[in-house]
Backbone:
């Protein structure tokens, strides 16, 4: 089983609290979401693996079992065209759980009129294969968000 850990410090809020129907309806996949602390921070890899996809506002890490985990930094942040985000790794790079992937500032994103809530999604999965999904409470980067069987 793969443990997926939080890429950020903040509060677990669950996908249903994400202000985007694609995420809140779990159309991308099941998982949870983090309402991040409002200070500059680094989003870290939620699993050991390889960076399959990398954008200023989102990244996917695929673990050794082939599980892809999407971390999306805020909602509609693609519209910021990378402003306020700094990539710290490259696509195709191997990363360790907890390794910094993107530096960003959730407060600045919010000031630009975007939600800083961050979905953390199990790609190509169903809710039945996830266990122990955290949907509330304070989390630190590295705390377990859910298990993936």
Residues:
């Amino acid at each position: 089983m793969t443990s997926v850990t939080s890429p950020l410090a903040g509060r677990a809020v669950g996908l249903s609290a994400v202000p985007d129907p694609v995420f809140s309806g779990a159309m991308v996949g099941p998982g949870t979401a983090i309402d991040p602390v409002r200070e500059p921070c680094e989003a870290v890899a939620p699993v050991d693996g390889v960076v399959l996809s990398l954008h200023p506002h989102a990244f996917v890490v695929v673990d050794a079992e082939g599980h892809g985990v999407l971390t999306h930094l805020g909602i509609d942040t693609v519209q910021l065209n990378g402003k306020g985000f700094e990539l710290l790794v490259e696509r195709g790079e191997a990363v360790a759980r907890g390794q910094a992937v993107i530096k960003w500032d959730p407060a600045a994103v919010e000031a630009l009129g975007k939600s800083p809530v961050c979905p953390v999604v199990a790609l190509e999965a169903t809710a039945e294969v996830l266990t122990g999904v955290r949907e509330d409470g304070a989390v630190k980067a590295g705390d377990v968000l859910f298990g993936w069987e």
The longest strand covers residues 49-55. The two ends are 5 Å apart (CA to CA). The chain has one domain: 2-148. Residues 2-148 form a domain with the Glucose Permease (Domain IIA) fold (CATH 2.70.70.10).
